[in-house]
Design goal:
alpha+beta; 145 residues
């Protein structure tokens, strides 16, 4: 009788690969509106600016906090509360979330921090981030003397 020997390390490796596959499949099956993806964002740029657009229906403009760190890390924070009358209802279905969120976006390059604009209209936040002037080579004169 010929036995096929398998080392315990090979078995352990095979189990780890199986668990990794299960983990990947379960991540792919999660809904795209998980907390880490809220609010949904769009981002684009042109020659002068970067733009970040966030969907925030039901939020008040004064409940939003936008900050920029090191000219390149944009943070959007906000919160939506539920009033007490709504909280006491007998809910049949409740999909809209309440509470606070925070999203950070790393911009591809620094922006002019003092020129950033934010506009909130109809539940859509549009942030305009002017690109920093790129450093140009500068000729340095050599003094004689």
């Amino acid at each position: 009788m010929l036995l096929n020997r398998v080392s315990p390390l090979e078995l352990l490796g095979e189990m780890q690969r199986s668990f990794s596959l299960i983990d990947e499949l379960s991540r792919a099956a999660r809904p795209s509106y998980s907390h880490s993806n809220f609010p949904p964002l769009n981002g684009w740029n042109d020659e002068a600016n970067y733009y970040v657009e966030a969907e925030l229906p039901g939020f008040a403009a004064d409940s939003l906090n936008i900050s920029l760190t090191d000219g390149q890390v944009l943070t959007i924070q906000g919160s939506r509360t539920i009033d007490e009358q709504r909280e006491q209802r007998k809910w049949i279905r409740r999909e809209r979330g309440f509470g606070s969120f925070e999203r950070q976006i790393m911009l591809p390059e620094p922006v002019q921090e003092d020129q950033v604009l934010a506009n909130f209209k109809d539940g859509v936040l549009l942030i305009t981030l002017p690109k920093a002037a790129k450093s140009q080579p500068r000729r340095i004169e050599v003094a004689k003397g």
